[in-house]
Design a protein that fits this description.
Elements (H helix, E strand, L loop, with lengths): L8 H10 L4 H19 L2 E4 L1 H16 L11 E5 L26 H8 L3 E6 L33 H8 L5 E5 L6 H7 L2 E4 L20 E5 L2 H11 L17 H7 L6 E5 L9 H16 L3 E5 L7 H16 L20 H12 L2 H14 L5 H24 L2 E5 L15 H5 L6 H6 L2 E9 L6 E8 L4 H19 L11
Helix pairs in contact: 2-3, 7-8, 8-16, 10-12, 10-13
């Protein structure tokens, strides 16, 4: 019998619905896989064995009673440890929330449970989602299943690594500047940043409120579409939630037809700093789109060159405001409260002990940018650049239906290589940041291996806001053509753990 951990999410759901496999069998297989390999990978911060098996048994009981099962009923999932989950530790990769048990579920978690998706546990991440490598986790870095000495991308490296290591067929990530798409590119998986506001942020621990967006991670485009449909939709508990119907993402993923579609190649996402093998695979992907019937043209978005600088003023500014709540007074870590110190001293000691170096760096950057006398010069100017980037997108989408680019300028780099060079680390998000600043939708899917190092390369597809279905239409077409060309999914080339 086929190993349940090697099935796609769609195949797993079909097997459970037909009775070929039980949800408990599928869950136990993935729990066994986690036990076998996660000591090497470190994709999970917490495995909720009892909770997962209880959810799986409930699915099997529904099927036995003849109740209709949803499209992903019984399918296991790794949940990025940034979403509150009632009674399950939620640390956000930080010591400041070590052992915290939330009293409620995030809206996204409720929707997963309503869809009968089995949550295996919480996935590792850069602390407070601040990073491009998952080296900033307070609980140790995650390894890339393609090469455990390399990073899996960040901040959602745990979610992507769990997919690539066959520990889960589905995962949830969050994307503030590329933290779903960049790990997808580094691990040969699929990651989607939905339109800002399309997936509820209620119960998601905030980093940068105007940029953060939860989204689906999977091993295939169809699986990502099925998960997208399960978690998206208006939420009155989230003031930024869009009150519009979810785009027909599953239908688009099944159509996989790009004939006549206008595709724009972003001129600014090339040149110095881009790995030769990454550009080679990207160029091949563009040629493939032409072969599939798409109309390809080059598009210039000049403001994109300023996106990185704008992002690293806006995101830290919002971070400094959001993280002020971690003051040792309400929840989480408390240091130095021996009765001899003031509340201010306890707060200072707690934040010093509880926050890691990258979080402290961004808090200081943001506090400075928002300070009196500097607000207009820094934060205000960055917001003006954000407007220019949004206008560049608007102009581009008057000419084309989607934009394409490499997801990341390079493949996965060795763990520790950029640890002492924050600027080099920030450059990993060069291609992904503009989409977050504008609030558009974007996807990364694998487009081959770089010849220099044999590591995965990601193709990024960008669509206008609330046109998320275009991502799946293009992504599914490229995926099908490449899989046919290779004779198997790219992940099958990854070395065994």
């Amino acid at each position: 019998m086929t190993d349940p951990t090697r099935l796609t999410a769609a195949q797993t759901a079909a097997a459970i619905a037909s009775g070929t496999l039980t949800a408990v069998e599928v869950t136990e297989a993935h729990l066994a896989r986690i036990e076998a390999v996660d000591e090497k990978v470190n994709a999970f911060l917490h495995v909720d064995r009892e909770g997962a098996l209880a959810q799986a048994r409930a699915v099997d009981e529904k099927r036995e009673r003849g109740e209709a099962l949803g499209p992903l009923a019984g399918v296991p999932l790794a949940l990025k440890d940034i979403f509150t989950t009632e009674g399950v530790p939620t640390t956000v990769g930080s010591k400041i929330l070590e052992g915290w048990l939330p009293p409620y579920d995030a809206t996204l978690v409720k929707r997963l449970k309503d869809a009968d998706i089995v949550v295996l546990g919480k996935a590792n991440m850069d602390e407070f989602a601040m990073g491009s490598s998952t080296e900033n986790s307070a609980y140790g870095p995650t390894g890339n299943p393609w090469d455990l000495t390399r990073i899996p991308g960040g901040s959602g490296g745990g979610s992507a690594a769990a997919l690539a290591a066959y520990e889960a067929p589905l995962a949830i990530g969050t994307d503030t500047g590329g933290s779903i798409r960049q790990p997808a590119a580094m691990t040969g998986t699929v990651g989607v940043k939905p339109t800002y506001g399309a997936v509820s942020r209620y119960g998601m621990v905030a980093f940068s409120s105007s940029l953060d967006q939860g989204g689906p991670c999977a091993r295939t485009v169809l699986d990502a579409a099925l998960l997208h449909e399960a978690i998206a939709g208006h939420d009155p508990l989230d003031s930024t939630s869009i009150d519009k119907p979810v785009p027909p993402v599953v239908e688009a993923a099944r159509s996989a037809d790009v004939k006549g579609l206008r595709v724009g190649v972003v001129k600014e996402f090339a040149g110095e700093g881009y790995q030769a093998g990454v550009m080679q695979r990207f160029t091949e992907s563009v040629e493939l789109l032409r072969e599939l019937g798409a109309e390809v043209t080059e598009i210039s978005c000049p403001s994109f060159d300023k996106a990185l600088a704008a992002y690293y003023l806006i995101a830290p500014s919002e971070c400094s405001s959001n993280l002020a709540r971690f003051d040792a007074m309400r929840y989480g870590l408390r240091v130095g409260d021996d009765g001899t110190r003031s509340a201010e001293e306890v707060t200072a000691l707690t934040r010093e002990a509880g926050f890691g170096a990258e979080v402290k760096r961004r808090i200081m950057l943001g506090t400075y940018a928002l300070s009196s006398g500097y607000y207009d010069a820094y934060y205000g100017s960055a917001q003006k650049v954000r407007t220019l980037i949004t206008r560049d997108f608007e102009k581009a989408f008057e000419q084309v239906d989607v934009l394409v680019s490499p997801t990341s300028p390079t493949t996965a780099f060795p763990i520790g290589e950029r640890a002492d060079d924050p600027m080099a680390m920030y450059l990993a998000d060069l291609c992904t940041i503009p989409t977050n600043l504008a609030g558009n939708a974007a996807m990364s899917l694998p487009c081959g291996l770089a010849p220099e190092d044999g590591l995965p390369v990601g193709l990024q597809i960008i669509a206008p806001a609330m046109a998320d279905d275009r991502l799946y239409r293009v992504g599914a077409a490229v995926e099908a053509a490449l899989t046919a060309r290779w004779g198997h999914p790219l992940l099958e080339e990854a070395p065994a753990l």
